[in-house]
Write a structure and sequence with these properties.
Blueprint: H1 3-38, H2 43-48, H3 52-57, H4 68-100, H5 104-108, H6 114-147, H7 154-181, H8 188-208, H9 220-223, H10 226-230, H11 237-260
Helix pairs in contact: 1-4, 1-6, 4-6, 4-7, 4-8, 6-7, 6-11, 7-8, 7-11
Length: 265
Amino acid sequence: MNVFVREMRANRKALIIWCIGVALLISSSMGKYAGLSASGQSINDLLTQMPHSLKVVMGMGSFDLTTAVGYYGVLFIYLAVMATIHAAMLGANIISKEERDKTAEFLFVKPVSRNTIITSKLLAALVNIVVFNLVTYASSILMVQQFSQGEGGSGEITRLMIGMFVLQLFFLVVGSAIAAKSKHPKTAPALATGILLFTFILSIAIDLNNKLEFLRFFTPFKYYDAKNLMYDRGFETVYVLISVGVIAVLLMATYAFYKNRDLKV
């Protein structure tokens, strides 16, 4: 069986579950927005009563929560974390599972090179994150327009989804590079997810303390900040170039590590 097709079938069930999960998260969150709006209370008034640190942690400090698009801007950070966790675990698992599950011999008997195998695996992973991103995009457009009362918002959501896709690619290759290098395949997904959570927590710490602003280059979550993408500077060239460079380096590292490693059967 073609390696690409095999990987698509192997990850089909997990992809469906993740897609259902993100669609439910969006619909339930926007439903909560509708409930708050219908209650007659000003969401912004409630927001002013919250401590600054809590608003930063929850991502609420920079948006007008009386609008559906503004409320979605707060939701985006949770969608981005969910999408990147999926991408990091997918990148790590799709590389390491042959050793973890003791099925590497399946690959050895196929008349294909390691480069062909790793390319097929990464293409399957790419298709998975594209599908996840499109489901998130379609669900977001549908739910925001349902509650936006003619405010629009499709342009802002499109920019957010492009930013999220770059984040997905970033952590996909982080996971794949770690798995290709690691001698302990079972730990690769946990390590990749740990790096992701560290960079996410770092982005929150930067928002809490302006003195840490110089550290923003070490967390891709600050490259594609929802407020900037929606209202301010949009996609900043320096961050896009850094993202492309890091993704390219990690992709080449994945190929090099996988080509030179001794797979255990």
